[in-house]
User: What shape does this take?
Amino acid sequence: MTIASPSQAPDARLAEIDRALRGRDVGRAAQLISELTLSRPAYVDGWVAAARLAQLTADPARMRAHLEKALTLAPGSPLIRLLDVEAQIHLGDVLSALAALREMEADAEGDAAWLGRISEAYSQCGNFDASERCARAALALDSESTALQYALSSALIATGKLEQAEDLLDRLIESNPRDYDAYYNRATLRRQTPDKNHIDAIRKAIDETAQDSMSAVGLNYALAHELEDLGRHEESFVALKKGADARRTKMAYRVEKDIVTMARIAEVFDAEFFGKARNGCDDEGSIFVLGLPRSGTTLVDRILSAHPEVESLGELNDFPLTLTAMGRTVPGPGDLISKAVGLNMRDLGETYLHRIRQRGKGARFSIDKAPANFLYIGLVAAALPNARIIHVNRNPIDNAFGMYKALFRMGYPFSYNFDDLAKYMRAKSGLMMHWHAMLPGRIIEVHYEDIVADQEVQTRRLLSEVGLAWDTACLDFHKNTSPTATASAAQVRRPIYTSSVNRWRRYEKQLAPLINALGDNE
Assistant: This one.
């Protein structure tokens, strides 16, 4: 089969619709799509375009409704079936999505492109073993495909097969030297050594692609990482700044919008909100591990999920997706923050739990470790009054520098500029102070440096706070075989180490503007 669009005949309006969708001109796209589906209700691509518009406007229920119409016209279309799976995932119906993927996997035998897309969809469901299986099958059919090599390497990293991932990335870069992301992924898989590194090859690639602005990001981040491993800190920072600056110039992001949002959250979720009786969900099995990226959230997640009664579900977006979907049902004007106050908290908690239980295996406790859930602590506390909320802290300069050094694929646009970083972190600290004032004793505070200094004492404390009996497996968290797809996927496969504490001091001169901007941020 082919995963191409199932169009029966070309329609000139499709090109105009596509331009409107790419330009995010929602009004124009909606008008054109409405005209097309009304005039040609049996035209499959019209309903696919309608689904794309619903996807753009973050309305997976409407997206699925349009795709159901498309599937009645083209039931065997891989494209439509895959889009339908994506809609199911966003609706939280992961079990149905997985069932559909298993059915498609059987149908896709012999089709490398389709298997590759199924591999990506499995990873969205958090099933990295299945993602690896499909990527391997696809690559066996098309061994020269760099896209499939990259997909398999990502699955291998998530499942902890780091040496295999590095070998595959070596092959990928050799066959496609312009796959710049692959250089960075490879650099993060292990500690580079004087005898085994890629510095010369990366510098050569930088020289050869000097006119290609896209190369500056991935290649410079890769170079910075490898130079730091070798202790060449001044050279490393020069490369890092080039990569970060290149990344930031490609963004239209304004940190002020996030600052206003956090202030608005604190304003809405005030003493009056928390002073009212809330009939939340009685579930006691949810653990939220949250904080800033690179603060140690993954370390805490791996320590806890090494316990036999705990499973990690990864970095989920299920809470904000649940909130967004329920916010649509609140009538009248107002932003989502304002509407959230009027939600039925029990419904919010139960709807969230319905979503995440489809991802788990039924352990007593399950972890949602999306760092940005700190934005929703007020709602989590109201909707799930028995949930454990663990906030992970780290020295703010180390934390800021850790984010600055990380090349995030999605999210965290504030991390590529010192001024943005400092402003965002100060706003986040203010919001956390507000949560502590509104919810005294409700949030479990954990410090990365404390864990590194005395792992057993802090692990015992953490397990006690959650309500778990001591288990020595938590000390050997690096032996935890469960998949992880975070930016720390390679680091958490190693025993605990102290080298990240006060790492910023090696760059004190270069980080002076950041240190000044952070001030007394704690």
